[in-house]
Structure formats: structure tokens, C-alpha cells
Amino acid sequence: MMMCRRATELMSQRLDRPLTWQERLSLRFHLSMCGACRQCNRQFGLLHEAGKRFMSGSRHEDDDSR
Amino acid sequence: MLSLTAPSAGTYDVTEEPLDDRMQRLAAVRPRLLSFARLHLRDNALAEDAVQDALEAAIAKNDSFEGRSGYETWVFGILKYKILDLLRAQKRQGQWQPLEDETDDETLDRLFQQSGRWREEARPVSWGEPEAVFENEHFWRVFDACMIALPDTIARVFSLRELMGLSTAEICRELDIKENNCWVILHRARLRLRACLERGWLEEEAS
């Protein structure tokens, strides 16, 4: 069975390349049973989104108008 | 170089007003451009120069921007190319450390047990709703601090991927590394960043 360490590799790579269907399946299975990894997965997603916000300028939106 | 755009009397009747308006928007976006450049270049003086260049280019090329929405994004785009040029120059001049030392397992051993499970103290906890996180100014302060705390090479790969939005294939071309190596580095970068953010952020929330 896949452990958390390997699961975090797939969570990360999911953001950089398409996973194979076996990888997707085993990641989904692991996430369904591991709360800590579910949090980690959300946070990786959030970091990914944070980077986009930085570039698109929606970060610190209110700073501009002050 | 601001003089490039100084209008001689009577020639800028139509564009004078918008240009003025844009100068203000540039001034407003400057701090954000600067922190963006700093995260990539990791050198204050270099970042200041890159932003100055980008601002001057934005003013010089003002006419080539159409439409008001997305102006900041357009300026960020100019800065992005300035930064990529600088990074390429740094690389040509041999100013970069080799990447190998970033692929050791130290980061992972601090977080995971031998069995591959999270160590008890390293288990991720909830950060709440993403929108609330993004609106929290403290989150962004900690984000900057955690980015600066990353080792240079890890930070470089992460910021090219997540801040500039390059694909891992493009990053490999820029940095001359294998794509597999790139994924390994990004995995470590994300684990370190999320741990740093959680530590820095929750501590402050509690105080």
C-alpha cells in the first residue's frame, strides 16, 4: 500500500504533469483514508493558486487603492 | 529615460491623460513588482534594476498596450522577460550553484518516519478556506519570508514554475536539468514551503 511520503510526491507531480491512471487511483485511495494527506493536498493546491495570484495582480488588491 | 515620453507641446493631446493615469498605476504596482523580482533574483539591487527597466519599458511601449483591464498583468509580463534574461545571464556567467545538493533526503526525513508515514509533529493541519487565506495579509508576509528562507536552487525552480508559470519542460531547458529532477525539487519545495507557512502562520495567529 502507498504511504504518505509517496502520496505527497504524486500530489506535487499532479500539478506539473498528468498522472497515469494507476497513480491517480492509488492517490485517490490514499487520500480517502488519510486526513493529514488531504490537508497537504489542499495546501499544495493553495500554493499553486497563490503563485498565479501573485502574477495576475490580485494579490494585495486593496494596497493599490490606498 | 522618462524623457523618452515627455511630450513636446501639442503632440500628446489625446494620450497625455491616459499616460498620466498609467504612471500612477505603475507607481501603485511597483512594490508588488519589486517583491516578485526579489523572489526570483534573491538580490535587492538586482531586483530594483529589473523593476526600473520594466517600468521604463512599460512607459516607452505604452502605445502598444490596448485596453485598461489587465494592464498590471501586461507590466508583470514585461518584468517576467527581464527576469528571465537576467537569470540566463547569471547562468552563462557561471553564478549558479549546481543543483545536485538539493535532492538529498534530509527534508523528507524530517517530515516522514522510516515507514513513510507523517511524523506526528509534521502532520499537516487545516488552514481554513482558501479565499480567507488569500485575503489574509499575514499569509502573504509569511509566504515571502518562507520563499526567502528556501535554498537558492529550490526557490529558483519553484518560482519559475509557480510564480512565472513555466512548464517543467521549459524549466529543464532554462536550467539544464532533467525533468525528473525538476519534479523532485518541486516536491521538496512544496513540502518545505507548506511546513514553513504552517509554522509561521499558526504561531502568529496564536499570539
Layout of strands and helices, then pairs:
The complex is a heterodimer of chains A (about 70) and B (about 210).
Chain A (H helix, E strand, L loop, with lengths): L3 H10 L7 H13 L1 H22 L4 H5 L1
Chain B lengths: L15 H26 L2 H17 L10 H22 L13 H6 L18 H6 L1 H13 L2 H12 L4 H8 L3 H28 L1
Helix pairs in contact in B: 1-2, 1-3, 1-7, 2-3, 6-9, 7-9
Task: Describe the structure in your own words.
By secondary structure, chain A is mainly alpha-helical. Chain A has one domain. Chain A is 76% helix and 0% strand. Chain A contains four helices and no strands. Chain A is globular and about 40 Å long. Chain B folds into two domains: 2-92, Rna Polymerase Sigma Factor, Chain: A (Orthogonal Bundle), CATH 1.10.1740; 100-206, Orthogonal Bundle (Arc Repressor Mutant, subunit A). Chain B has nine helices and no strands. In chain B, helix 1 packs across helix 3, helix 1 packs antiparallel against helix 7 and helix 2 (44-60) packs across helix 3. Chain B is globular, with a radius of gyration of 21 Å. Residues 1-15 of chain B have low confidence and may be disordered. Chains A and B meet through helix 1, helix 3 and helix 4 of A and helix 1, helix 3, helix 5, helix 6 and helix 7 of B.
